[in-house]
Amino acid sequence: MKKLLAIIVLGLLWCDMTFANVLTEHSEIYKAMKEIKSERTYKGITGYIIRPEEEKNPSKFPIILPKNSAPIISDYKSIFGANWEYGLKRNKQNAQGNKHAGIDFYVKTGSPILAANDGRVIMARIESCEGPLLLIKHTGNKYATYMHIGEFKVKKGDVVKRGQLIADAGALVGTRCGGGIEHLHFQISSEGPCRDCTGSWKFLGKFKSWRNPHNYWTGGKGKPECFVEGKEYKKKLLTLPIQCNKL
Length: 247
Hints:
Elements: H1 2-19, E1 22-23, H2 26-37, E2 49-50, E3 72-74, H3 92-95, E4 103-106, E5 112-114, E6 119-127, E7 131-138, E8 142-147, E9 149-152, E10 159-160, E11 165-169, E12 173-175, E13 178-180, E14 183-189, H4 201-204, E15 210-211
Parallel strand pairs: 1-2
Antiparallel strand pairs: 3-4, 4-14, 5-11, 6-7, 6-10, 7-8, 8-14, 9-11, 12-13, 14-15
C-alpha cells in the first residue's frame, strides 16, 4: 500500500513538473507572447512550450524547458509553424503531411544565437526559401542547421566552441516560400548534407537522417539546458542554441 501511494505521489509531482510550462489556451498564449516580446516574463518565466491546439507529442518523453529559456513556438513534428501567432492557429489543411522537422525558438531580432556544441562550420549561406543559415558539424557527428538567422558571426571552415556566438537572430521571416514571426529553426541530421539532392535537402540531409533534437540535450532526453560559461557538459550532447533570459 505504501509503495502504491508513493508511486501515485511521484506521478502527480512528475506531471506537475513536466507540463507546468505548456500553454494551450489562446488567450493565455496571447498574453504570454505579448509580455515576452516586451522583454518581460509571464507569470515569472519565459520558457514556455506553446501548443495552440491539442496535438500528439511525437516525443516519447515530456519536454521540460528551463524557466528562462526562449519559448518553443513550434516543436519537432508539430503541425504548427512560426507563421502562427497570438493564438491564431495555422491552416491545418496546408500543414498536413508537412510536419515540422526541427524546433522553432522565439527569439527577438538581434538576440545571440549560440553554438550548441563544439564543431566546424560546414555551410554559411543565404537560401531563397530558408533565408540565412548555418550548418555546423558538431562533436558526435551531429549536423545542426541554424535557420532564419541574421548577421553571421562565423564563416565556412571556422572551428567553434560550445556557447560561442555564431549569429544574431534574424528579423521577421519573409522569403518566397512563406514567412512568420522572428525565430530560430534548429534541426539535427545524423548524416549531414546530401550532395546529390536538390532544394533544402542539400544542407538538411536526407529525410531518413533527420533526428529529434530533444534526444540529445545535456540535461537528458527532453531536458535542454542553458549554456553557462565554465560549466562542464557531456561532450557529445547539446546545450540550447539560444541565450537564456535573466529572470
